[in-house]
Design goal:
It comes from Theromaster brunnea. InterPro entries: UbiA_prenyltransferase, UbiA_sf, UBIAD1. It is a multi-pass membrane protein. This is 1,4-dihydroxyl-2-napthoate octaprenyltransferase. The chain is mainly alpha-helical and 215 residues long. It has one domain (3-211). 70% of the residues lie in helices and 0% in strands. It contains 7 helices and no strands. Helix 1 runs parallel beside helix 3 and helix 5 (136-157) runs antiparallel to helix 7. The longest helix has 31 residues, at 170-200. The mean pLDDT is 87.
């Protein structure tokens, strides 16, 4: 375990994640999706101007690239392997709402499920271990599903405003009842995964079950 690699990995992942959130805020505002009822009112309440937010996004992406270069120098992993996963994650964070806007054609949920689970975990593992092990993707499943649960919850709440703006999300496609069922699955399936991992590998995997009553 390398503490410097861990810190640079955190900086890189958080910077790209934050940059993706900034792009999402900017594009949603420009498309007229955000309103006074939205959870993100950074531009609606004029806390920042669109230009200031765009500059912030550039800075965050640049910071992520600095972190990536540092990892290339420090990590035992091959540069091409790190680059493939890193730039795949970076482009995904932008394309969620920027460019073709996968969020608006009901593909945003799939993108988030892949990016904030398998891609993030695989990148972190490679940076530390120096090699690729697809087995770590199993450990990424609970994280991916919980992240998707948060996104789906937000999309279910914003279903009407998204529809008025012409966006198509999974929450819109499945309707109110389907959204509730899907949210419950996304919330509780990770506990099933943890149980399986705990039975077959280590009892430490059962530790997240203490949060089950709150869920």
């Amino acid at each position: 375990f390398s503490a410097p690699i861990f810190l640079w990995t955190c900086l890189t992942a958080l910077s790209v994640h934050a940059a993706g959130n900034v792009v999402n805020t900017y594009v949603d505002f420009m498309r007229g999706v955000d309103s006074q009822r939205s959870d993100d009112r950074t531009l609606v309440d004029r806390l920042l101007t669109p230009d200031e937010l765009a500059h912030l996004g550039v800075i965050l992406y640049a910071l992520g690239c600095v972190g990536f270069v540092s990892l290339v120098l420090l990590s035992p992993a091959k540069m091409e392997h790190l680059a493939l996963v890193y730039f795949g994650g970076l482009s995904s964070s932008f394309l969620y709402t920027g460019g073709i806007g996968l969020k608006y054609i009901a593909l945003g949920d799939v993108l988030v499920l892949v990016t904030f689970g398998p891609v993030s975990v695989l990148f972190s593992f490679m940076a530390q271990a120096g090699y690729v092990d697809l087995g770590v993707l199993l450990y990424a499943m609970p994280l991916a599903l919980n992240t998707e649960a948060i996104l789906h919850c937000n999309n279910a709440r914003d279903r009407e405003s998204d529809a008025r703006a012409g966006a198509v999300t999974v929450a819109i496609l499945v309707g109110p009842t389907g959204s509730h069922v899907l949210y419950a699955l996304l919330l509780f399936v990770p506990y099933m995964v943890f149980t399986v991992l705990g039975v077959h590998f280590s009892l430490w995997w059962l530790l997240p079950l203490i949060t089950l009553p709150q869920a």
